[in-house]
Amino acid sequence: MIHATEITIRTFHTDAFGHVNNSRYLELFEEARWRYAEDIGLIELLKQKNLGFIIMDLRLRFRKPVVEGSRVTIKTSLDTLGSASGEVHQQIHAGQGSPAVKGTFHFILIDRDNGKSVPIDGEIRELLDGVKIN
Amino acid sequence: MIHATEITIRTFHTDAFGHVNNSRYLELFEEARWRYAEDIGLIELLKQKNLGFIIMDLRLRFRKPVVEGSRVTIKTSLDTLGSASGEVHQQIHAGQGSPAVKGTFHFILIDRDNGKSVPIDGEIRELLDGVKIN
Amino acid sequence: MIHATEITIRTFHTDAFGHVNNSRYLELFEEARWRYAEDIGLIELLKQKNLGFIIMDLRLRFRKPVVEGSRVTIKTSLDTLGSASGEVHQQIHAGQGSPAVKGTFHFILIDRDNGKSVPIDGEIRELLDGVKIN
Amino acid sequence: MIHATEITIRTFHTDAFGHVNNSRYLELFEEARWRYAEDIGLIELLKQKNLGFIIMDLRLRFRKPVVEGSRVTIKTSLDTLGSASGEVHQQIHAGQGSPAVKGTFHFILIDRDNGKSVPIDGEIRELLDGVKIN
User: Fold this and answer.
1) C38 touches chain A (CB under 8 A)
2) Which residues on chain D are in Cβ contact (under 8 Å) with C14?
3) In this complex, is the C-beta atom of D27 within 8 Å of any C-beta atom belonging to chain C?
4) Are the Cβ atoms of D30 and B11 closer than 8 angstroms?
5) Structural domain boundaries of chain D?
6) D31 reaches A (C-beta below 8 A)
7) How far apart are CA A35 and CA C26, in angstroms?
């Protein structure tokens, strides 16, 4: 599935160039990943098991500036799922045409008590396998 | 004592109005309070005792906008010290004349393990009594 | 009217104390004021006239910590409206009972081209008079 | 040259995982690039010509968590310089050993009035050629 989240850009997202500041894109993408996770019931599962996803590697490509007041659509998809890691692709669309910003996020699953990586298996794997797009 | 910290305003501090965004002032003031605490040896003491100061109440007054590239001076003073709380005054100066922003912060001391308020006494009190301006 | 906005607290809102960081409350309150303004048609009016509201003075009172994953309700009301300024009260509710955080914001209206204060009159006044609670 | 900047991690840089939040790394890296630019006299040149560098593409690799109170060293180098773009490499070191976070930033030069890309030539090119490491 490709999940879509809508967010309106506020003054606090922008900087003096008049556009969304680079560091804010990471928060917009994070918000969209959370909403995706909520919509598929992943948050509840993670809380029960005291697990969390953390990002190991990310890439952002800025194609068009996004301005205050824009109503953007953030598309999120799980593209790859390995035994202990995966890759999420995200795009921010502000109006018609090609995306304004593209993001790629490599994640692993950790135990929130000790911060150690754990395998992606059991119920969480089942859930993610069901929404993966490739 | 009145402590002075210098910080240069960057693009990520500003918003599309071309000025420092309101929420960023809280970070600038927090940074200045940390540097003050470091300079008087307070950080070390707090770490040893696993204590931390938290803000209960704050007030900000915005008098002049501050722009990217400004080298601001943040003045910080401990004005009041009660048995379990105190009040810090801060001012951001950008250039000559009156301050651009004024802040007042009411704080209490907490135990970082349980989040509970604890009295300001012993070594921490001695230290703070020595720097208080009134 | 008392406007209500719902927002879910994410990891990027929190700090190492495990709660929402103080500076983030200003963004949460700002987001709620924007949604209020959208819901009553104020954003459109401001854009047509190239006007904007800016905060001159604010006060925050922190009563209870708010943690990641909380679904908070932010209540916003316009309490006072003068010829060139006004006062908005806001409360963040996380669960039952008294608010976790209370905010008071004094604002003025400015011309976005020159940053100068302008009177609150005409259509904007009419709109605000209609939603004011006192 | 490899430029080094020291920054102390504060509470507002961290999140409820107890580490620096991902989006904050972009601000730490941005701060280090600004200080580099100041130290070589680039800021002054950009201001005279009303030019600015913007990031087109970035990559972050997170290797070790960084906690509140850490005094980190951020190393910054200009690795590639084309006719209209370049690449900066950055590393955050928190203590001994390998870096905690690595960043790669592709930038272009723009005219701040119209946001259009301009060639990197003249005095700015001379300055950058002098500090480039490859």
Assistant:
1) yes
2) 15-16
3) no
4) yes
5) 3-131
6) no
7) 22
The CB density around residue B66, as the number of other CB atoms within 10 Å, is 23
Residue of D nearest to C68 (CA): D16
Q: Which residues, at least 6 apart from D47, have a Cβ–Cβ distance to it below 8 Å?
A: B69
Note whether B30 contacts D10, CB cutoff 8 Å.
yes
- Say whether residue B39 is in contact with chain D using an 8 A CB cutoff: no
Euclidean distance between CA atoms A90 and A7, whole angstroms: 14
Whether C10 and chain A come into contact, CB under 8 Å, resolves to yes
E strands in C9-100: 51-62, 71-81, 85-93
Flag whether residue D17 sits within 8 Å of chain B, measured between CB atoms: no
Please give the single-letter amino acid code of residue D24.
R
Rounded Cα distance, B117 and B51, in Å: 9
Contacts of B26 (CB under 8 A, 6+ apart): B58, B60, C22, C23, C26, D12
Give me C13's structure tokens: 């809102």
What DSSP designation does C41 have? T
Which other chains touch chain D, taking contact as 3+ CB pairs less than 8 Å apart?
A: A, B, C
Do residue A30 and residue C38 have CB atoms under 8 angstroms apart?
no
Residue numbers in B near C17 (CB within 8 A): 52, 54, 112, 115
Q: What is the ipTM of this complex?
A: 0.94
- Check: CB of residue C67 under 8 Å from CB of residue C17: no
Class of domain A3-131: alpha beta
Confidence of residue C125 (pLDDT cuts 50, 70, 90): very high
Q: What are phi and psi of D67, to 5 degrees?
A: -110, 160
- SS (HEC) of A111-132: ECCCCCECCCCHHHHHHHHHHC
Single-letter code of the amino acid located at B50: N
Tell me the whole-structure pTM to 2 decimals.
0.93
Strands C51-62 and C101-111: antiparallel
Tens-digit pLDDT profile for chain A (134 aa)? 999 999 999 999 999 988 999 999 999 999 999 999 999 999 999 999 999 999 999 999 999 999 999 999 999 999 999 999 999 999 999 989 999 999 999 999 999 888 899 999 999 999 999 999 97
A54 touches chain B (CB under 8 A): no
List CB contacts of A119: < 8 A, sequence separation 6 or more.
A83, A84, A109
Nearest-by-CA chain C residue for A46: C69
